[in-house]
């Protein structure tokens, strides 16, 4: 059942992105940035976690979850260390996405030759 | 084109702008949305399969299993980007491949591979986040503002 919800919610978030691209004529960069900010706002209100409980990977795979986990990481540290935790804890949870992008980007650049 | 910028154009330029707008190809919004929905949904379903795998075999909970899933998806993206398959998907699916984290991975990895000819330090290192940088910048900054407000409300507002 969670697979179906993952499919529907994930697809829906992509449709929102597609509408921003086509109807509002934003560039992909603007669209993705707006989605990340949207995810951060939802995460700030604690709504995104409910979406993850509900839709699983349908909520964690789209880029919106990046904003959510940035906020959550910052809040986790802020609970322990106060205001300074907002900065020290920022990448606590998101680390996997960014570090794997950097690591696999480097490996890709070593292994593959540019085409065309 | 906003009205503000139109004022600075001569009348011939304005005529051209309206002319060009009429001839602009209408984007098949509905069709694109359907494509984005199915491809995006499909990627998330694969993500769910990977999440389930990590939850069963490696003791992750529903909340934490997202992290290894993202890493795995970016690894798959590296292979697809390297072999030149991802571009074809992306052309077909639009936001369906851009919005999931694979799009973020693709932006980083394709920039890294593309600029490899300029050397590893200046080319790969300098250009890796050329496209994905805005996502990180706005994500981090908005998260900072939101977490700051929330912390202040909790600590001094007694929320």
UniProtKB/TrEMBL annotation, chain A:
Q: So where does this one cross the membrane?
A: 6-24, 31-48, 54-71, 83-112
Does this UniProt record's set of keywords contain Transmembrane? yes
| Keyword set, alphabetical order | Membrane, Transmembrane, Transmembrane helix
Give the domain of life.
Bacteria
Record keyword Protease present: no
Pfam families in the cross-refs: SpoVAC_SpoVAEB
Q: Return the PANTHER family for the record.
A: STAGE V SPORULATION PROTEIN AC-RELATED (PTHR38450), STAGE V SPORULATION PROTEIN AEB (PTHR38450:SF2)
Name it: Stage V sporulation protein AE
What is the organism field in this record? Aquibacillus albus
Automatic annotation (TrEMBL), chain B:
Transmembrane residues, as ranges?
33-57, 69-86, 93-113, 133-153
InterPro entries, sorted:
Spore_V_AC, SpoVA
Q: Does the keyword Nucleus apply?
A: no
Alphabetical UniProt keywords = Membrane, Transmembrane, Transmembrane helix
Q: Can the keyword Transmembrane helix be found in this entry's annotation?
A: yes
Protein's name in the database:
Stage V sporulation protein AC
Organism listed in the record: Aquibacillus albus
